[in-house]
Write a structure and sequence with these properties.
Elements: E1 3-7, H1 11-22, E2 26-31, E3 42-45, E4 48-51, E5 57-58, H2 65-72, E6 81-83, E7 90-94, E8 97-101, H3 105-115, H4 120-134, H5 138-141, H6 148-156, H7 159-166, H8 170-178, H9 192-204, E9 206-209, H10 212-226, E10 230-233, E11 235-243, E12 246-255, E13 269-275, E14 278-281, H11 285-291, H12 299-307, E15 313-322, H13 326-329, E16 332-336, H14 342-345, E17 355-359, E18 376-384, H15 386-391, H16 408-428, E19 433-440, H17 442-449, E20 480-482, H18 492-507, H19 509-518
Parallel strand pairs: 1-2, 1-14, 2-10, 7-16, 14-20
Antiparallel strand pairs: 3-4, 5-9, 6-9, 7-8, 11-12, 12-13, 15-18, 15-19, 16-17, 17-18
Helix pairs in contact: 1-10, 1-18, 3-4, 4-7, 4-9, 18-19
Bound molecules: flavin-adenine dinucleotide.
């Protein structure tokens, strides 16, 4: 029986693990954290769940890509998936204007025309470009013979250049650019193709999962175990052993019994060598490079990965709120303080919070944890900045070691930022009674997922770093493949597509496409 080791249990890692286990491979997933899912995981306080990196899932309606993937992975029937408001799953709010994004690209176009009739010609042009860009991607369309030149073309132009070509009115540019928060790259750097594919899959359908992304991760783990695979928690890969250019084993540090809930809070531990015929790395390629021996990859590749900019980071504010939250029950809110691109660009600071994103996935659960006297769970995301956060820390050490960064300066900076953000939310929603609030910073993200500089979506998916320069799934080391949002697109769909592309290298991409097309 062939053995595979998967480093990391994010969406891409778990999807790869299940795909291999379904093929009869003996699969072991190594996860540094205590819970599966990477960005999908929920954490709990007093029995109330707080989602970290899941708010909704796109293209999960019947016949669409994620619907097929979940069916193919064998978990769809165990998930309860419900649509958000089809007339406005995302609300993009500026001073004096709120635009509700409906399901359906043509409905979106109609809504834009009715709001901005003077831009009708530009809207028709924009929608044509959007459809062409979304149609360029092979895995997204389950059509692998599409010419790669078209992907290079749509990833070579910036969202800003397309918006400037199509529109005069800064308000329509602001609305469309607003959704760039979904992949964390401001319009001047955002590849139009990335914008198109990410927004397109949510416009196909925007759904919630009962239990959040956590439920998806738990069901993938259950499926993996049912197929004979295993997952080890608090097992941090520290080295990939390479012999004659072939990856042959992963050395993982497994924490000893420890009362602490944090991934790095190890008492004594031991290192285990896992031999493998295939290693799938769901960690960021920068981290994978650290796991490999010197010289395993070409100097040019090492330089490219080391120089690659990680994506932007965020501050998460986890609140329990009493008040009128009806808009969040079935839509997400993007709140910009101005139409300027600066609102997307500028990190929040204790002085100003130019943009925030509000969502409440828990409110969409039938069980509605935290509802009632305890208020509803609301998550706000604001722009974070690794430099601001790490400047307060003595030493950021290795992921999982909070003692090394939680200095008094860090606590003070975090408290000031939280206070400023809460002030902004209260001014915007005066009826809100915020019963509790705690914040995560880029250092928290880095600690729990290992994402470099706390990057929200791993890689900075910019014009300069996509197209020909994207980080690869396949590296020079034989039997090693990389999956996850850093080598694909941000989001669950993007990360899962990398799993199919990677496992396609082993068992044949066309075979997987055929199977996906046949999913009922
Ligand atoms: C705030 C926020 C909101 C988001 N909202 C949405 C949304 O609504 N919809 C959507 O589709 N997407 C959303 N996303 C994006 C989505 O969650 C991610 O793109 C996706 O889950 C990433 O999956 P991944 O496969 O790249 O793995 P990751 O989630 O990055 O997981 C990688 C895993 O590898 C583990 N790991 C790393 N190094 C090691 C090591 N050495 N040894 C062992 N384990 C290791 C980590 O602990 C982690 O579990 C959001 C992200 C964030 C941050």
């Amino acid at each position: 029986m062939k053995r595979a080791v998967v480093i990391g249990s994010g969406a891409g890692g778990l999807a790869s693990a299940v795909l291999l286990a379904k093929r009869g491979w003996a699969v072991t997933v190594l996860e540094q954290h205590t819970r599966a899912g990477g960005f999908l995981h929920r954490f709990f306080r007093g029995g109330v769940g707080y989602d970290t990196g899941f708010h909704y899932i796109g293209s999960a309606d019947k016949g669409q890509l994620v619907w097929r993937i979940l069916g193919h992975l064998g978990v769809r029937d165990r998930l309860t998936v419900r649509s958000l408001d089809t007339e406005g799953f995302d609300r993009i709010r500026f001073p004096g204007l709120e635009f509700r994004v409906p399901v359906g690209v043509d409905r979106f176009a109609e809504r834009l025309v009715s709001t901005f009739p003077h831009e009708a010609v530009g809207i028709a042009r924009y929608i044509e470009l959007h459809k062409a860009a979304a149609a360029a991607y092979g895995w997204y369309n389950l059509q692998l013979d599409l010419p790669v030149e078209e992907v290079l073309r749509v990833e070579g132009m910036s969202l800003r250049s397309v918006l400037n070509d199509c529109f005069q009115d800064e308000r329509i540019r602001g609305i469309i650019a607003g959704q760039s928060a979904l992949y964390g790259v401001p319009p001047r750097d955002a590849p139009f193709g990335v914008h198109a594919i990410v927004t397109d899959h949510f416009m196909q359908s925007a759904m919630t999962i009962e239990g959040g992304g956590d439920r998806l991760a738990l069901e993938l783990v259950r499926e993996l175990r049912g197929l004979g695979g295993t997952i080890q928690f608090r097992a941090r890969a520290e080295r990939i052993e390479v012999q004659d250019g072939v990856a042959v084993a992963v050395h993982a540090r497994v924490a000893g019994p420890s009362p602490g809930p944090s991934p790095g809070e190890r008492s004594e531990g031991r290192t285990i060598r896992h031999e493998a015929d295939l290693i799938i790395a769901n960690a960021h390629p920068k981290h994978v490079l650290d796991l490999l021996p010197d010289g395993a990859t070409r100097p040019a590749y090492r330089e490219r990965v080391r120089d690659a900019l990680p994506g932007r980071a965020h501050i998460g504010i986890y609140m329990r709120v009493r008040g009128d939250l009806s808009a969040l029950a079935s839509s997400n809110l993007y709140r910009f303080t101005s139409f300027s691109e600066d609102a997307i660009e500028t990190p929040a600071s204790p002085e100003s919070v130019p943009f925030w994103f509000l969502t409440a996935p828990g409110m969409r659960d039938a069980a509605k944890p935290g509802q009632g006297a305890g208020g509803n769970v609301v998550l706000a995301l604001i722009q974070g900045d690794w430099k601001q956060a790490s400047a307060c820390a003595d030493d950021v050490g290795v992921p999982g070691d909070p003692a090394r960064y939680q200095t008094p300066e860090y606590a003070e900076w975090k408290a000031a930022l939280l206070a400023r953000a809460l002030e902004a939310f209260r001014a915007d929603s005066p009826d809100w009674e915020i019963l509790s609030a705690e914040a995560s910073t880029p250092l928290t993200t880095w600690r729990y997922t290992g994402s470099p500089e706390g990057a929200t979506y791993g890689h900075y998916h910019s014009v300069a770093q996509m197209g020909r320069c994207r980080l690869p799934i396949k590296v020079r080391v034989k039997n090693l493949l990389q999956v996850g949002h850093a080598v694909g697109f941000p989001g669950i769909c993007g990360a899962m597509m990398t799993a199919y592309a990677a496992i396609g290298e082993i068992i044949g991409a066309e075979q997987l496409v055929t199977e996906l097309k046949e999913v009922q």
